Amino acid sequence: MSAPVFIDELGAEEWARFREVRLRALMEAPLAFGSTLEEERALPEADWPHQLSRAVTFVARCDGSRGPGGDVGVVRLAADRADPEVGWLIAMWVCPEARGCGVGDALVSAVLERARAVGYTRVRLDVADLNQDAVLLYARHGFTPTGEVGTHRPPREHIREHRREVVLAGR
Questions:
Q1: Residue 76's closest CA among 157, 20, 22?
Q2: pTM for the complete prediction?
Q3: Other Cβ atoms within 10 Å of 50 Cβ, number
Q4: Hey, what domains does the chain have and what are their CATH numbers?
């Protein structure tokens, strides 16, 4: 894939687009996320716009058309519940066909740009230890390990992950 990467921020009215790319992510990478495809498929339609109001959501596409068919990646920026200076990079996914083409870099850059704009001093994320491509992606953007480790909830507690953080300059 050599097309330019376009990043769209989704509004609540684009919940169906978010739902489609999120379910694709859960289907393609079922062990990468805290929730399951079955859990999110079962969500009522009314929950999807609400999710978009709780976290900034970006999708990536590699063509000029907008819409679910062209979406090749997704990432979200959520506020920390306890610390107003911290944002969380969550729900990151790039479809296999678009990996290695700059989509992940564009999505992470969008999150960091927004985090700076809203005044966060740090952005954190959790990443599976075995997902070395993601670890390298985050390291390219300045995310370093914090020393905190954990696992997914059952039945996927065998998946070990670690926390990474980037301190944002310019505050």
A1: 22
A2: 0.92
A3: 12
A4: 6-121 (3.40.630.30)
